[in-house]
Specification:
The protein is an all-alpha fold. The longest helix is centred in the N-terminal third of the chain and has 50 residues. 29% of the residues are buried.
């Protein structure tokens, strides 16, 4: 999640430099063919392009709105994970009879669960967005592509860790292990049957929150909206220079001779600017489709997991608490 109020031009150029260079070369080529080779037949009326531009803008607006909804739902889910994590720790500390080791195991296992869930959600899928090399280098430098179980190593026993290595969904089995542990505590008389029901109610909600995350992760943004918004945007920006030729040719007839040469060349930066605006609007929606990838606009799960860990271990009165996650290149992961 980008945390600086204004996005730096360095980050903007990471995303835009290839498109800007392409639009500059493409527009300059069309401009040169029209004015220097005198191919006057390649211009097209601008009115149809206006209709196309309005339609594309509406389409992109819908895509961006729905993409933001996916991000905001994901952030609300992780807000629920934060809240229920604290509830779980409070129940453990309040309901389990004086057994500090058991309390520590239950709370540390929960910290293992949130970290396992985080890494699982960050694994790439077949529909994950692919950026240019400059952007990918930024995220590879800070990203998390390590195996899921590595995130649990410091919070569970060696035996439990080795069992998780053979599981397809370690986060699911960590919650299952919590339930089995609660059953043992009830059988040994360390909690009551009513306490057991409270614990299982919290575990059920944790499963619900995990399932909601997996629903967003495993359900791609409908490709008909995602793909065709890109297609329509590029159709518009590729036709744009031809339409601007027509506009500028009409304006030139009303200009003085000493202004005309300078006015002609304004078509190139103006076309590049309009093209960049439309492609950037389209890319904003694409970058918000999948909120768990660990990119600029995604849910800062690493920071949230560390916040939960600090809170829960502080509730255990531990002293060696980790530091909060700090942003890297103004991005909070």
């Amino acid at each position: 999640m980008y945390i600086k109020r204004n996005i730096g031009w360095g980050l903007i150029l990471r995303y835009a430099w290839k498109n800007v260079i392409f639009f500059s070369i493409y527009t300059a080529s069309i401009f040169s063919i029209y004015y220097f080779l005198d191919w006057k037949f390649i211009d097209i009326p601008f009115q149809p392009l206006t209709v196309i531009g309005i339609a594309v803008a509406f389409y992109i607006g819908f895509k961006n709105s729905q993409s933001y909804d996916r991000f905001w739902e994901a952030r609300k889910i992780w807000g629920g994970i934060v809240n229920y994590s604290r509830t779980w720790a409070n129940q453990v500390l309040s309901l389990v009879q004086d057994d500090q080791e058991t309390k520590s195991v239950l709370i540390h296992r929960h910290v293992a669960w949130i970290n396992a869930l985080r890494i699982q959600l960050r694994q790439p899928t077949s529909f994950s967005i692919k950026e240019n090399s400059a952007v990918e280098r930024l995220f590879k430098k800070h990203g998390e592509q390590k195996p899921v179980c590595d995130a649990t190593r410091n919070f569970v026993s060696i035996k439990e860790y080795e069992d998780l290595l053979n599981r397809k969904n370690p986060a699911t089995h960590l919650v299952k292990n919590q339930g089995l542990h609660i059953k043992q505590l009830c059988g040994s008389g360390k909690i009551t049957e009513f306490d057991k029901q409270l614990f299982h109610g919290t575990l059920e909600e944790l499963y619900n929150l995990q399932g909601k995350c997996e629903r967003i992760k495993n359900t791609p943004f409908p490709r008909q909206y995602a793909y065709f918004s890109t297609v329509f945007t590029w159709i518009f920006v590729m036709l744009l220079p031809f339409g601007l030729l027509n506009v500028f040719e009409g304006e030139l007839n009303e200009m003085a001779n000493d202004i005309r040469p300078w006015f002609i060349f304004l078509m190139i930066p103006l076309s590049v600017l309009i093209s960049w605006i439309f492609t950037t609007m389209e890319k904003i929606g694409s970058n918000s489709e999948d909120p768990f990838e660990g990119r600029v606009n995604d849910v800062p799960m690493t920071a949230l997991c560390r916040t939960i860990e600090i809170d829960l271990r502080d509730m255990l009165d531990e002293n060696d608490l980790p530091e909060k996650i700090q942003p890297k290149d103004n991005i909070l992961y």
